[in-house]
Amino acid sequence: MILRLVIADGRQTPAVAESVELSADGTLTGWRSVSPAGVGWFTGKLPAPELTALQALIEAVTPTSPPHPVPRPGAAEEVLELPATGPVSIAGLTPASAPAPTPASAPADADSLDGGVDGAGAWARLAEASRQLIERLTDFPRAAVAVDVASPTTARLVHRGTDPLRLDLGTVAVRVTAWRGYYEPAGDWTGPVTGPAEVEAGPGWTYDLPIERAPDDTTVHLAVNFAVLSGSTKVPVQARFTPVPK
Amino acid sequence: MSDIAAQRVLKPQDTPDVNTLGPDPRILLAAGNAAMARMLPGAPAGAALGELGQFAGNAQVARFVGQPPAPGGGAPPAPGGGVTSGAHGDSVQDLQVELSRLQASAAPLTEDGKYGPLTEAAVRNFQTGAGIVPVTGVADPVTKAQIDAAFAALPAPVRVVLASGATGTDVGFAQQKLNAVGASPRLIINAIFDGPMLGAVIAYEIAALHRFPTATVDAAMWTALDSGVKGGFLAPEGAGGTQVEQNTTSGTANSLGTQVAGTSLHPFTGVGGLTGGPAVHELQQKLNTAGASPALKDDGAFGPKTLAALRAFQTGRVPPLPATGTADKATWDALDVASPGSLTGAVDRQWTEVVGGATYSMVGAEGSHYSWEIQKTRMLVTAKVTFVGPPPPGAWFGYVPATWNQYQGVDAASGNSLPIDFQMTSGGGGDANQVKVLTGSGRANAGEWYLADPDAKNTIPHEFGHLIGLQDEYQLHPGDYVRVTGHEPPVGDTTGPAGAPAPATAPTPATIATQLQTAMVARSSAGALAATVTAGVRPGAFAQRIVQEYATLATTTVPAVPGVVGPPSVPGKPAVTLTGDLLFDLNAALPDDTDRYETIQVLSYSSGSVMGDQSRVSDPHDHGAQPRHLGEFMAILGRALGGTWEAKRR
């Protein structure tokens, strides 16, 4: 492992608890719990240029002290780990929040900032790149489930990837939000669906969920709460379908 | 209402046994038992009062002395003429308070000052019950008079005499009221008549009741406390008799985040800073008030004349300020002294908050940037936002006034009033806030908003509150809660979890505190949840006893743990030395997951207002935008126009 990022936020239900881990050979693995591109396990390999760019960012921060950013109100916990640093909180660390690079003529005490202002900038760039890795994960589904609209009255869970995973559909909560124009609210519907307590989803697997029909001139978004079974652990997840409105 | 059976009621001739003063004698530090014994047989002499002051804490006595009872309690002032569906304002809110308490409404009415269908139905119910014909649903003068009369005739809360060792809800209410009249240090609302409360009671008896201490909260003391401090009792509301805790007011709320020390509330203006907009208007107005000659045109453009006037002001100070042509902190400080008021202003607020034991901030370029203008017919507060990413939906801009444009400033002495309007605009520049617009849905924070947020009508007004410097009102320590909301932490649950069937017993606060520490050492948020929420702990006095007990435990260091990809994904954590502050420690030691969040929720305090946690806290008395949230703008009106302004519903 040359980099691991975990993002967690217990304020929402289900909680955000997502992760990505990058190996020296470019192997990317991770888990998504709340995502429009599928929830579950993801594995892939970064193209060499992307890996090289990330390695450069890691090397840039390694000699500097980790920053201590204070996140904005309501921000999720974001913890980045590098072999050289251990866990470092990066919530609130963005290129905008980091001080501008220090000119060479800066006074000696400029480094009194954590890691020095140049170091903070490097950490901010690495933080952004790491967050992008979590998004990048969904290009590589291994055993995941996404949701789609199959018909005006049907939402459909769809397996993604190559490996099977076990789901608990005993208590499924579906939320339908309809939008008209550019994100003008046009209605909202929620409903529980009771399905099988345990089901294995593999390639080709789908599962239909009845939903309320939204007005024809609207774009429908879905949020479906269910659970993925990992060993004996039931992990709450939310699959989302959020196309740009018509 | 109270656990009377568990209370020891002192008779007048009783001499308190100060050696057995209940569960927490630890505060009997200063004057000690001898002083108490000398003072109890007769009226306190001056020297004795001195000793008692030492016992209770001189500062505490001093705070109580000379405090006249504040107006409070009883029925609110009667509104004017009849009010009907579609009406709004303070008079409607008062009506809602009365209708709920008279149980005329189906359920406790949300006191929003809007005469909607539920309020109308409650008026109809009242009219039917009172035999008023015709039943119109209109609070006409006759109906209103009868509502007022019925409300005034409601029985006062039944109070019981409290003595050391007593427990129960009434103890909590007495603690709230002692805090509200100045107990120092503040009492923890734990619903136990413990040592600290004893000190506060004695101090109040001496300083406010001017009597020899009885160490009891007796009828006379209750009368004084109830007449001086509103709220602090349970009352049935709505037809179902829902027991609703009536908030105990306590001082003046300050809902703003804690300003970072040494920072200015004004943006740098002039050379190297802002050269246009409200900040320059404010600068020009203040320079004019400070005697700029020739007087500047108030055009909001920082030109050569404004530069010259600013430099003249800087060099004219004693000692002179550097003539930089930049209105920096020192210059603004001097301008604020020379010219306290202006009709336009810009604020650059750098602030922090502690929520759920974690510190958050809006500082640097990410500080809160907003401006205000006192116009002829209203005061307009604007937060300009640079939206990064996809354009924001138009609906967002409507959500802000829908929630926030509820109030007007009123100066009672002059009778003047001015609506306070809020707006969010889109724009750039150094006085704009930056918000990243993200596709899809998710949980927003102050700097990231989601296009497809299905709850945007609540989310956007909350985040807008941060843009005008307001802090969150959830998962707070008690002191922060009272500062931010202006009322005491609720008494809530006093009894804790019920015991399991015999021979098992209910867990004590000390047991739960130990279990929590064990869970932290194991980095187990599930363990923390099991010890609290799952065991039956609910927010309130019992939960605060856990917080107290935890503070007494020996601290320990929790080793670092690496992150786990999962599932479930768990963030890595550095080693952490536990501090004894339960909220801080839970935040530091446990991963940010649902179990930790719910555990902290029951051990802290949250409001139901727009800045609180509206999804978890339902409070008919404290929801949406509240007058306290407009406090800063009332002060600005006072400086600009004179008088004392209060936010009232309009």
TrEMBL record, chain A:
Organism this protein belongs to: Paractinoplanes ferrugineus
Span list, region Disordered: 91-111
Highest taxon above the source species: Bacteria
Protein name (Swiss-Prot/TrEMBL): Uncharacterized protein
From TrEMBL, chain B:
Region (Disordered): 1-22, 65-90
InterPro entries, per database record: Peptidoglycan-bd-like (IPR002477), PGBD-like_sf (IPR036365), PGBDSf (IPR036366)
Skewed-composition ranges (Pro residues): 68-79
Domain Peptidoglycan binding-like: 89-146, 277-335
Protein name as it appears in the record: Peptidoglycan binding-like domain-containing protein
The organism of origin for this protein: Paractinoplanes ferrugineus
